[in-house]
Amino acid sequence: MIAPAKTSQPLQHGFTLLEVLIAVTITAVIGLGVWQVINGVVNSRDRVNELAEQFDGLQRAMLLLERDIMQVVNRPARDIYGDFQPALSSRDDDFSLVLTRQGWRNPLGIRRSGLQRVGWEYTGSELRRRYWPMVDQGQEDDSRDVLLLEGVKRLEVRFLDSNRSWQPQWPTDEVMAGLTPGSRPDVPLPLGMEVTLEHERFGTLVRTFALPDFDPAVAQGALNQANQAASEAEEESTEEEGTTQQPGETTGATGQGG
User: What is the tally of structural domains in the chain?
Assistant: First the structure.
C-alpha cells in the first residue's frame, strides 16, 4: 500500500519585534522632521505678518504726520479756559506737538469748518494722535484719540527759525516773553521742522519738513488787488451796458413823438 504524498505548505514569516521598532522609529523621525519644517514655515509667516503690520503702522503714522505738518495754518486756537494758544506749539504739557491744520475732508457735507486742531502725544512707548472737531475748544472734551504706533523709544521735534537756526521749542523763549496774556498771539510759523523717531525694531528715522511760506501781509495785499480788479471790471461792464442801451432808448422816444 502506497502512502499518500505529503504536500509542503509555504512557511509564513512575520515582522520581528526589532523590525517593528525600527520602522516605528523611522516613521517618528520623519514625522518630527516634517513637523519642524511646517512649524518653521508657520513661525516665519507669523513673523513676516507681524513685521509687515508694524511697518504699515509706521508708514501710516509718518504719512499722517506729514499731512498735518504740510497743511498747517497760522490760526491760533482757544483752550477750554478761553485763552489763546499759538497755532503751532511744542510747549503743551500733554503733547509733543500741537497744531492747526486745514484740508479736513468733509465727504458727508456736515456743517463744520475745514480746519482741525491736532495733537501728537508720545506716552513713552506709544505714538498717539488726538484731534478736536472744533478748533476752539469748549468746556466739554469732545476730542478723539487714535493709537498709531507702538514700540516707540524716542520722539524729538525741533524747529528752524527765520535765522536758519534750530530751536528745541516753539514758540521760542524770546517770542513767549513778548506775548501778552489773553491777547491773540502773533507768532510766525517756523521755516521748517525736523522729527526724529526711534523705534525698537526699525531704528532711528529722521524726517525734515519745509513748512509753507505764508506771509499774511502779502496774502492780504494779493486779495485786495483781486478785489479791486473785480470791482473795476464790474464798473466797466456796467458802463458798457449803459452805452448799449442809450440808442434804443432814443429811438423809442422818437417813435412816441411821431
Answer: 1
- Examine residue 10 and say whether the peptide bond preceding it is cis (omega within 30 degrees of 0): no
Least confident of 43-47, 119-123, 180-184: 180-184
Q: Which residues pair with 132 in a beta bridge?
A: 117
Read off the CATH number of the domain in which 116 is found.
3.10.610.10
In a domain, 16, yes or no: no
In a domain, 49, yes or no: no
Q: Is residue 205 one of the residues assigned to a domain?
A: yes
CA distances from 166 to 28, 47, 149, 191, 235 (A): 67, 40, 27, 10, 51
The CA-based dihedral angle spanning residues 218, 220, 223, 229, taken in that order and rounded to the nearest 10 degrees: -80
| pTM of structure | 0.66
| Assigned domain for 69 exists | yes
For the stretch 78-101, pLDDT in tens is 888 888 889 999 999 889 999 999
Residue (of 66, 123, 74, 61) closest to 94 by Cα position: 123
- Domain assignment of residue 176, given as a range: 62-217
